[in-house]
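FIELD: query
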Amino acid sequence: MEYPGGERLAAGTGAALAVASIPLPYLRVGGDPVVLALPVGSVDADAVVAAAVLAGAAVSLVDHTRGEQLLGAVAGGLAAAVAVGWVAGAAGAGGPFGRLTAGSGLAVAMVAWGAVEVADLLEPGRSHPRVSRWAAVGAVAGCVAGTVGFLLVDGGVRLVPGALGVAAWLYAVRWELAAARG
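FIELD: result
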């Protein structure tokens, strides 16, 4: 079953959320902004992330697949960095591990990725041989909810939404691969 216009609405929502995340902080180390040292000087990491998020928002309006890939690489990659740092810090690695935290902009960017991913799933012609596309849409929603839960909750309990988010993402990827094979 096709849903005309649904993918455009989802992509527009995702692009709007991505743009809305730009003035918000993405990453913090011990509460301070992350600064990247470059040969020509230093730059705030939030500015670099904001540029990538803005590019993802623009691309998602034209090509849902490439837009979700770009937003997913940024939001998902940063969420993974926060997760790895938190696990290493909890294991006693010391140093910078455990000090990297997500700002509210990263959570909003993750929701933006989810909306653009839904746009990609709703594109006409995309279907799974046996499973409704709504199963994949539900998995994306679970992934976003789990990841945002991980990013915003403190303590060991954050592993629960984080693990559920990863499991949901893996299901969505599996659905997309099967749909691509036809």
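FIELD: remark
The helical segments are 6-21, 45-62, 64-90, 104-121, 133-152, 159-181.
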